[in-house]
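The instructor's notes for this session suggest beginning with a concrete chain rather than abstract definitions. Hand out the sequence below and ask the class to guess, before any prediction is shown, which regions might be ordered.
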Amino acid sequence: MQTAVTIALTALYVGLSLALGGVNSNNGPWWFFLPCIVSACAFVLAKIIQDRLPLPWVNEQGYSSPPRRVHLSWRAAVRLPAYAPFLLILWHFLSILRMHFDVDWVLYCVITFALGIMIIIDLRRWREIRLLRSGEVAMAYIDGRQNTAEWENDKIFYHFRTASGTDVSGRSLYTGYDVLEGSIIPVFYDADNPRDHVVACASWFEAV
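After discussion, reveal the predicted structure:
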């Protein structure tokens, strides 16, 4: 369901950008500003929805034994599509350059760079899925949070104790979850290497 919502919202935001002329050079600077406006509105909508979503672990009776079922979180489902209009800006910018200059080498560099970023993101997401699906579960105590004016993804500092009695501390970003200092939150960790872990509020996914 979440994946379907992500695809639908992505198509909606890209479609709105195209319908409004966001990639039409005849619109002057609007080829840049229209996708930005659509994206900004999408982020506002995502923030409103995220603020109304409950924390998935508050009313949980407990997680099942590994391997668990893992799915995309609702917060990621409504937030990720907001980035889609920016891809139109990049594509149109490269198209303009190709019309006036021989910049094939620039295009190759951009594609290579984009593929590298995608590989890094995929590896990180696969790590999250692996830990959520097969990792041990503990409850982490939030020691503090660091808020910044520039980014919504602020930092939290936490510690937890594994089933074997090992104390582990860490810090992470939290994405769309309003976690408070002094609260507790699930953390999924590798039993053989507890420092390899992910807190529930820092993942794009949720375990059931």
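Then share the key points. The mean pLDDT is 83. Helices lie at 2-19, 30-52, 74-79, 84-100, 104-134.
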